[in-house]
Amino acid sequence: MQRHPNLIPLSHEHKSLLFVCRYLKTDAAPYEGYPLDTNAKMDYMVKVFQEVMVPHIQKEDHLFEQCRGFFPEMDTMLDELLDEHRVISGMYSALVDSKDLITDMDTLARNLEEHIRKEERVVFEKMQELLPDVLDKLKFD
Ligand SMILES: [Fe+2]
Ligand SMILES: [Fe+2]
């Protein structure tokens, strides 16, 4: 299904976040301009989290609030996603005290990747199917 126009900004952000996920994983392929040493990965991740992830989660909080209360199956999915936001944010905060940054960044990346794929493949699709009117009225500001 084609993405609803009001969800396109979130889908764009997912692409940036999926890129950082690929880069943080232990099996990352080398990209021009993205050195694979741990400090470079950490710096890039902090930048992307501050610039993209934090506002992205705020937008999704708003989206989820608007989509809540119509269908129990949707509410259950939204609860799951909110839980995952908490887990992923917790993993991110815990990196400052990490004893094994390489492994912990890899774990964070895999969790975030799975979370985003669920949003894109399952939840956004379901929202478009069940709640087109809510999406039509959606505004992020
Ligand atoms: Fe999310
Ligand atoms: Fe998302």
Can you give a write-up of this model?
There is one protein chain. The chain contains 5 helices and no strands. The protein is mainly α. The protein has one domain (8-137). The model has no long low-confidence stretch (mean pLDDT 95). The site of one fe (ii) ion (FE2) has 6 residues, from helix 1, helix 2 and helix 4.
State the helical fraction.
Answer: over 70%
Profile the largest sheet.
none
Tally the helices: 5
Number of strand segments: 0
Number of domains: 1
Averaging pLDDT over every residue, what do you get? 95
Distance between the termini: 26 Å
Strand content: under 5%
Shape designation: elongated
Question: What is the H/E string?
Answer: HHHHH
Name the structural class: mainly alpha
Question: What's the structural blueprint in terms of helices and strands?
Answer:
Layout: H1 8-24, H2 38-67, H3 72-94, H4 101-130, H5 132-136
The structure holds fe (ii) ion (FE2) (2 copies).
Organism: Chitinophaga barathri
Protein name: Hemerythrin-like domain-containing protein
Pfam family, one: Hemerythrin
Keywords:
single chain, 5 helices, 0% strand, mainly alpha, 141 residues, Hemerythrin-like domain-containing protein, Hemerythrin-like, binds fe (ii) ion
Task: Summarize the structure in short.
With 141 residues, the protein is mainly α.
